[in-house]
Specification:
This protein has about 200 residues and is α+β, with helices and mostly antiparallel strands. It contains 4 helices and 6 strands. The protein has one domain.
């Protein structure tokens, strides 16, 4: 009885055709999975960015109770317990900026915009005294200077010219200038337990 020897497969080489099939499969899988991973990372960063703005809102409420006015990032860190990393103005794929109005007892607004538009995130966010968050996919703020200019250009602390904020939406639903889905007091009193008078961003009527 003769014994058959099975030739080991370890010495077998892939043909060019087999290699092309493998490369094609890898390319297809990458084309399917990479956009999904990027989108998932962006949504995670955006959730963290909104959480950062809400942390700023809470810190502002604490700071006002202590100082009877609102503060910038350094003041919020020093006296209201704002997270040290967030207070640097850079966290979770976003830059953050707080702008206090000419009436610091009543007026402030904060921005969060992507560190790399279309990579870390593709939307920016804004929060103010009422605690409402608004967002847009337009690159209207890209640095501290443009954040300050945007506040001045839209008269946040005087005329509340919301009609110029085309493309902005409330995070909890609704487009600025249309019906207010979250209730709220149009153009007047605040939400979020904030005792201050006036409003740095009027709610839609």
């Amino acid at each position: 009885m003769t014994t058959q020897h099975i030739r080991p497969l370890s010495g077998r080489r892939f043909s060019m055709q087999e290699m092309m099939v493998v490369v094609g499969i890898i390319a297809i899988l990458a084309a399917i999975s990479i956009p999904s991973l990027v989108s998932s990372k962006q949504r995670g960063n955006e959730s963290a960015g909104v959480a950062g703005l809400k942390a700023i809102h809470a810190a502002q409420a604490r700071y006002r109770e202590l100082k009877e006015r609102y503060g910038d990032m350094a003041a919020l860190e020093a006296d209201a317990g704002l997270d040290k990393v967030l207070a640097t103005g850079k966290r979770d794929g976003f830059f953050f900026r707080v702008v206090v109005g000419p009436e610091p007892a009543n007026q402030w607004v904060a921005f969060a915009w992507p560190q790399a538009w279309g990579v870390s995130a593709d939307r920016m966010f804004l929060i103010e005294r009422t605690g409402r968050v608004v967002m847009t996919s337009r690159q209207v703020v890209t640095d501290d200077a443009s954040a300050d200019a945007f506040v001045g250009g839209h008269a946040f602390f005087s005329s509340y010219d919301l009609l110029d904020m085309q493309g902005w939406q409330y995070l909890d639903g609704g487009v600025i200038g249309e019906s207010d889905p979250g209730g709220g007091d149009p153009g007047g009193g605040g939400g979020g337990g904030d005792p201050g008078a006036g409003c740095s961003l009027a709610l839609p009527r």
